[in-house]
Amino acid sequence: MVEIRKKSLFTRLFGATAGERAFSCVVYFIFLLVTLTMALPFLYVIVKSFEGYDVTSGVMVEVYTFSAYKTVLGDLSIVWTFLRTVAVVAVGTAINVFLTILTAYPLSKSHLRGKNVIILFIVFPMLFSAGMVPNYLLIDSLGLKDNILVYILPQLMGSFNIIVAKNFLQGIPESLEEAAKIDGAGNYRILFSVFMPLSLPIIATITLWVAVGKWNDYMTGLMYISDHDLYLIQNHLRDLLVTSRSNETQNPGLLNNDEAVIMANIVIVTLPIFIAYPFVQKHFVKGTILGSVKG
Amino acid sequence: MLIPAVAFFITFSYVPLLGLQVAFKDYTMTGGIWNSSWAVNDAGALDPFKYFRIIFTDAEILSKMLNTVRLASLRIVCGFPVPILIVIFMNEMRWSGFKKTTQTLMYLPHFISWVVISGIFFQLTAEGSVLQQAFTAVFGHTIFFFNDPNTFLGLLIVTDIWKEAGWSTIIYLAAISSIDPSIEEAARIDGASRFRRIWHIILPGMLPAISINLIFSVSGIVYGGFDQVFNMMGENSVLYSTADILETYIYRYGISRQSNYTIALTTALGMFNSAVSLALILLANFFIKRIGGNGIW
Fold it and tell me: What CATH number corresponds to the domain at position A147?
């Protein structure tokens, strides 16, 4: 009778021989350091955002309070900027993803004539762009400066996402299309009722890419918006950081009472990503691997 | 179905290409892109390449080119091997729960903007911070990265690795997971050491992904990482001597302090940048295919 001995937890985590165990210890130590390096800057910001001083007893005592958050959220213009950003990101992402799939779908068909020309037409801007200044002159001449549409129109779709979606759609059997055609469905009906439900993984991934990109976009606001009533959250934070930095350079060493407020701003701007991240991480990873497949 | 895409790319990607003619013109506000006259030299003779000549002779612009290439090269030399090393070590890790936690944390900074991250690192290295106290204890003095052009370059490299190295591991992890486990098992039975398994099985498995990443890195050498440098450097002119790159220069003179002269000049500079990057990506692709690797097309 063969006796199967279950390996102990220690052996499973560290290996069986002395050499393997020593190596495992080194590896765990390295990744412990990596983990700490990744986590500590974030923890620092979060802790600092709650720091404050209590002077009610007559002596300055360091305490943990929500006072920085009260200061930030007490400014209604910041709350409005936050909500405006949420709206722009939601609308912009929805339109972007819809148009990306709409474009990718016909390009995924092997029978489309002139397909390679259109793909080159879409990919070329990724390889050669006109640069910052001609783009600025274009937006200026279209009258999009200080116009909320500037957050949406110039970013209606992206070359890279179209190609990724096209590659995914190519993996869905074309016989499904033929079957639907025989049943009398038109092209749009086939896309929305047959192919869209099957492409949910790639739609989720592209939605997340686009939404994060839009949430983090400060450049559009910086280049084309001077009216603070049209600012998005990254521009608000950037202005705040630039001001606090020039104060700090002018008066080095001066106790910076606003530190907690700055940290609270950083936390608020990053909060949506922190909250969503644990739930959506797997879509990001999956989609990136899908997108890296050459095709 | 393709009409919106064609209209979009024509308007926002191809029409700006027509705007590149500004690089060959003496731009005026009233003339705009189309009605400004072609560039003339000091003697009044037609000289469409005037601004390109200025790019290659102006000492300030040449120093920005040097900064760009220096920074991008440092990034490749210091940053490129990091995700590869992480993946190799991570592949040897047996404790999957620990592995997952590390991965989750490593991917996170990729999704946070440079605006936020520059703010975090500025506060982290500000006077009186824990980090500065540690520097004082170890080196006997503080190091203000944001006011010192040399150590600032180091900070740029380190923060870039901090933000992106974790995310870059994904593509290598995918490559490793597609290696047939029976190959490794066979090697183990044949008595191959850990090092030999990494060298002969794991690394070759990652090679296609490594070569594609290298193509992108090398072709990006004229882009020094605008978002990072722009946000970390701010308007601090002390740092310009090492950290001011072509793109930040283009933004400063082409957008924020633009004049007729600088609009033409920075358009020419941007065009030069795009052309070099296109040439490099074609060249890198050609070489990698030549030595038997996988190109990007």
Answer: 1.10.3720.10
CB A293 within 8 A of CB A165: no
- The answer to whether position A54 is within a domain reads no
* Model confidence pLDDT, tens digit, residues A25-53: 888 999 999 999 999 999 999 998 998 87
Q: Which residue among B8, B93, B106 places its CB closest to the CB of A156?
A: B8
Report the domain count for chain A: 1
pLDDT digits (tens, 9 = 90+) for A75-97: 888 999 999 999 999 999 999 99
In a domain, A245, yes or no: no
CB within 8 Å: A133 and B2:
no
Domain borders along chain B are 1-48, 52-290
Does the pLDDT value for residue B297 go beyond 70? no
Report long-range pairs for B122-127 (Cβ below 8 Å, ≥24 apart). B122/A241, B122/A245, B122/B146, B122/B232, B123/A44, B123/A45, B123/A48, B123/A259, B123/A262, B123/A263, B124/A41, B124/A44, B125/B155, B126/A248, B126/A256, B127/A252, B127/A253
- Does residue A243 form part of some domain? no
Could you tell me the CA-to-CA distances from B250 to B115, B127, B257, B263 in Å, in that order?
Answer: 19, 32, 10, 9
Mean predicted confidence (pLDDT) in B272-286: 88
Tokens (6 digits) for B90: 């991570």
Judge contact between A218 and A234, C-beta under 8 A: yes
Minimal C-alpha gap between B222 and chain A (Å): 13
Q: Which of A133, A223, A250 to mutate to test the interface with B (most CBs of B within 10 A)?
A: A133
CA distance B297 to B290: 13
Which residue in B33, B234, B269 is closest to A137 by CB distance?
Answer: B33
In the three-class reduction of DSSP (H, G, I as helix; E, B as strand; rest coil), residue A166 is classed as helix
Residue (of A292, A92, A128) closest to B175 by Cα position = A292
Question: Which chain B residues touch A48 with a CB distance below 8 Å?
Answer: 123
Q: Is residue A146 part of a domain?
A: yes
Which of B3, B13, B36 to probe by mutation at the A interface, max A CB count within 10 Å?
B13
CA atoms within 13 A on the CB side of B194: 11
The domain B52-290 is classified under which CATH number: 2.30.30.140, 1.10.10.10, 2.60.40.3500, 1.10.3720.10?
1.10.3720.10
Q: Residue A213: is its pLDDT beyond 90?
A: yes
